[in-house]
């Protein structure tokens, strides 16, 4: 009797799983592989596909962001088409208009003129600016972070937010539900005790059951009174105080202090995320956001919902439009095949490509997986550097002499497909020049790695690196 129940179960679920893989998978090799597993392994095949083959994250993100889907949803693993804008007259005034056209077509987002940006290197530069802005706040403060520590400078931020709340400033803090668990949410409890409005982005829970470690909000945003904004890669955590001799995990990073129309866009993005989590918008007093400089930029909202692949497509297009050089500095580097091909094609056109990675990150298995694919760069004469400690957590991509992509995203599947991320394109020669100088300092403290060095790895290291590389889509 049990045999016939199992056989009937397989005959029912097998065609459903096979049809789903056939019409849903974007990669023909993945579709063929999963259909083979489904057909060849009774019961186990369909169950494995249900557990590991279906991109429930995409569906969950659509439901989370307000889409109503049928129970049997056979959708498409793709982004919604961008809203194409009318040609932006600003594009043709930029040094390389092709770079600006890419983001316009890939995201549908407009260029924002009239901004001023200041580069803040490490916590030593960022936290004093953030604390000063919080102390000067008169109307409202928005703060979004992935990690939220409770020692050192993080404690100062907590106390400053509490003081702002006490003097009548509206304070909204959005923290990631997984990122804050690393510090036992001590900061979150302290803020809530002071009646600060705090929301956690999709925290894991047992009741109702929600154990998904994906759908993370990796954005780092702060806005004060619509006058000043901050974004970049620095969390509210004292690990970014690199010069502190008591810091056991010094982590270098780059943040930006901005004035101008970009601040209003950061406010809009924060309010969107707050609404996703709480179901309501923050109650903010409407304030002006005047122009403040001459920098032109574009904000890119990227996440596993309607904006899936906005950053990835923009970067691939920008690499294709590069004329002279591409410089990449990220802590985690596992780009997809299309992005690697775009870099290889750039080299064939005579573009110089340089990639700066940490010698040792905080995620060793990501380092090992990356080493398994670096030959695809070195074989085509790209320059790859390993930067010595402290751990470089910066996310900077520079193209030619007047383009910079900044923000929170790494070049891996987690950032480009699983997380909610923020990117800001800058079409500013002066800002790009300063960032090139920062990368020059980083390469001066780095060593170049060669294809021969990778080929000389012991067999056990090659096996280890290749094993973790198999999970590149999930690291």
UniProtKB/TrEMBL annotation:
Cellular localisation: Cell membrane
Membrane topology: Multi-pass membrane protein
InterPro entries according to UniProt: CLS_N, PLD-like_dom, PLipase_D/transphosphatidylase
GO BP term, example: cardiolipin biosynthetic process
Signal peptide range in chain numbering: none
Tagged with keyword Transmembrane helix: yes
CC per GO annotation: plasma membrane
Occurrences of domain PLD phosphodiesterase (ranges): 213-240, 388-415
Chief localization: membrane
Transmembrane regions listed in the UniProt entry: 31-52
Pfam families according to UniProt: PLDc_2, PLDc_N
One of the record's GO molecular function terms: cardiolipin synthase activity
Protein known as: Cardiolipin synthase
Source organism per UniProt: Marinimicrobium koreense
């Amino acid at each position: 009797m049990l045999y016939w129940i199992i056989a009937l179960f397989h005959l029912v679920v097998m065609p459903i799983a096979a049809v789903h893989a056939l019409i849903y998978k974007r990669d023909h090799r993945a579709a063929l592989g999963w259909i083979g597993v489904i057909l060849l392994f009774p019961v186990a095949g369909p169950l494995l596909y249900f557990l590991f083959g279906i991109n429930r994250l995409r569906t969950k993100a659509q439901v989370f962001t307000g889409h109503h889907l049928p129970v049997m949803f056979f959708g498409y693993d793709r982004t919604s088409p961008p809203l194409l804008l009318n040609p932006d007259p600003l594009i043709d005034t930029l040094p390389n208009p092709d770079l600006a056209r890419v983001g316009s077509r890939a995201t549908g987002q407009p260029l924002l003129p009239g901004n001023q940006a200041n580069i803040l290197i490490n916590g030593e530069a960022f936290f004093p600016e953030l604390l000063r802005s919080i102390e000067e706040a008169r109307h409202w403060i928005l703060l979004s972070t992935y990690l939220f520590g409770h020692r050192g400078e993080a404690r100062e931020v907590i106390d400053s937010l509490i003081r702002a709340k006490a003097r009548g400033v509206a304070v909204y803090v959005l923290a990631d539900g997984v990122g804050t668990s690393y510090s036992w949410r001590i900061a979150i409890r302290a803020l809530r005790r002071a009646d600060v409005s705090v929301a956690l982005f999709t925290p894991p829970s047992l009741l109702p059951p929600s154990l998904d470690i994906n759908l993370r909000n990796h954005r780092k945003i702060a806005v004060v009174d619509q006058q000043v904004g901050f974004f970049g890669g620095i969390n509210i955590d004292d690990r970014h105080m690199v010069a502190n001799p008591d810091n056991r995990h010094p982590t270098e990073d780059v943040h930006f202090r901005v004035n101008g129309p970009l601040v209003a866009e950061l406010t809009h993005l924060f309010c969107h995320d707050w609404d996703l989590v709480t179901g309501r918008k923050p109650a903010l007093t409407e304030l002006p956001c005047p122009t403040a400089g001459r920098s032109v930029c574009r904000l890119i909202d990227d996440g596993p919902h309607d904006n899936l692949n906005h950053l990835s497509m923009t970067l691939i297009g920008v690499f294709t439009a590069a004329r002279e050089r591409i410089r990449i500095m990220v802590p985690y580097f596992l780009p997809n095949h299309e992005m690697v091909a775009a870099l290889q094609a750039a080299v064939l056109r005579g573009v110089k490509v340089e990639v700066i990675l940490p010698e040792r990150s905080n995620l060793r298995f990501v380092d090992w997986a990356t080493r398994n694919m670096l030959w695809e760069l070195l074989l085509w004469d790209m320059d790859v550097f390993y930067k010595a400690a402290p751990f470089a957590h910066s996310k900077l991509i520079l193209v030619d002499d007047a383009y910079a992509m900044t923000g929170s995203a790494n070049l891996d599947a987690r950032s480009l497909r699983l997380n909610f991320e923020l990117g800001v394109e800058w079409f500013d020669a002066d800002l790009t020049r300063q960032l090139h100088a920062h990368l020059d300092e980083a390469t001066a403290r780095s060593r170049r790695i060669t294809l021969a060095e990778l080929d000389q790895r012991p067999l056990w290291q090659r096996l280890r690196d290749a094993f973790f590389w198999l999970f590149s889509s999930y690291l």
